[in-house]
Structure formats: structure tokens, C-alpha cells
Amino acid sequence: MKSDAKRRHSRKPTTLVDRVYQEIQNKILNNVLGAGYQALEQELAEEMGISRTPVREALIRLQRDGLVEVVPRHGMRVLPISLTDIQEIHEILTSLEGLAVGLAAARRLSPKELDLLDRSTKKMDEAHEKSDLKAWAQADEDFHCNLIELSGNRILVEVADNFWNRAKRARLTMLSLRQSSTVESIQEHVRLIEAIRNGESAKAREILEYHRKRGITNLKKLMEERRDSILPL
């Protein structure tokens, strides 16, 4: 078992196309390349010091991921995130994480494994006390990634990783509006860990599903309030 779920998000690329794909993907997910950003293949290739072919192949993969639109002779455009996109992604994540926590509880995790979740929750609490939203969001991400890891299901880990990445842009965009819900999230994480520790699979899934549904309800409300300045509906 990996000691930190973040390692899963930093797999070393094995080919040049993988490297280009990962570099552009990271910039999009971290909002370095925001919605509407446009660039020609040649521009991207020159910036990276490579030929256009690996850039083109990477952009095709990113288009399949729903992150960009590839326009013939016009390069690529970074796609915006809609409320519908976020709702659908979170519905899938809720199902995947619900399965993961059920499997984790049934496995009766060791104290060392449970410590991964305890540490992430503690970091969230410390970040909340310091009003450090970026640190809070990173600890929250670690918690949810560790939940998936602790399921013990390798394929579930791979599938969830893709959807978690697609949700990351919205999480970062909405970060400044999350202050009011940080305490509730920490409390729900504590209850979830306890259910997993006790091997209560059904209860763990119930807590996780409530946690996710409350999160998307709050996100929807915030997006509707800020629709002119944040994300399209």
C-alpha cells in the first residue's frame, strides 16, 4: 500500500506523447490554461521544444477526456466546465467511492492503513484553523484518494482516478467559496473513518453518499449564485 495517494497522480510518463499529454493535462486541471484558452499545435510544439506529432496525439487523448476541443487547422481550445458536467462526474464518483468504502470496511483495515485517513483528516482540521484553503483542499483530495486506494481493488483505483482528475478543475475554481463547508466535511470524514474502522460497510456507504450529495448541493448553489463570474451552467 502506498503511504500517500498523491503518488498515484504523479506517475512518470513512459513515452513522449505521455509526457506531453500529462504536461498539458496538469496545466488544464490546475487552471493554468483556463476555459477558452486556444493554441495552435505548432505553438505548443515550439513551447515544448518538440515536433507537432506527439502534440497532436496528446490533444486527441485530451479531447477524449473532455478537456479540450481539437479544431482542424486551428489547434485546440480548452473546454469550460458546466454544472451538468460536475453533477454527472460527482454522481459517478459517489458510486465509485461508495463501493470503495464498502470494500475497505469489509477488509477490516489495519491501524497503519486507517492512519492514512486519520492523517489527512487531521491536516484538514489544521488547515481549517489556519484558514488555509489550499492546504485544506489538498488534504481533502488525499483523503478521498486514499479511500479509493484502501478498497484494495486495482481497477477501481484506475477508473476513479480519471474522474477525480476531471473534477479537480471545478474544485480549484470554487476553492475560495468553500470556507463555510470545511467544518462539515471534516466531521463527516471522522464519522466515515469510524464506520470503516468498525467494519460497518453499509453505514460507511451511507455516510459517504450523504457527504457527496451535500457537497454537490452546495456546489450547485454556489455556481448558480456566481454563474456570471465562474462557470457556465
Can you offer a commentary on this structure?
With 233 residues, the protein is mostly helical. It has 2 domains: 5-78, Arc Repressor Mutant, subunit A; 83-225, Four Helix Bundle (Hemerythrin (Met), subunit A) (Up-down Bundle). Helices cover 67% and strands 4% of the residues. A hairpin with a 3-residue loop joins strand 2 (68-71) and strand 3. The longest helix is centred in the middle third of the chain and has 25 residues, at 83-107. The radius of gyration is 19 Å and the shape is globular. The N and C termini lie far apart (39 Å).
Main traits of this protein?
233 residues; disordered N terminus; 4% strand; Arc Repressor Mutant, subunit A; Four Helix Bundle (Hemerythrin (Met), subunit A); disordered C terminus; mainly alpha; 9 helices; three-stranded antiparallel β-sheet; 2 domains
CATH class of the largest domain: Mainly Alpha
Q: Could you say which structural class the secondary elements and strand pairing correspond to? A: mainly alpha
- Helicity, as a percent range: 55-70%
Query: Termini, distance in Å?
Result: 39 Å
Strand portion, in percent? Answer: under 5%
Number of strands: 3
**Radius of gyration from the CA trace?**
19 Å
**What does the largest sheet look like?**
3 strands, antiparallel
Lateral arrangement of strands in the main beta sheet: 1-3-2
- Number of continuous helical runs: 9
Number of domains: 2
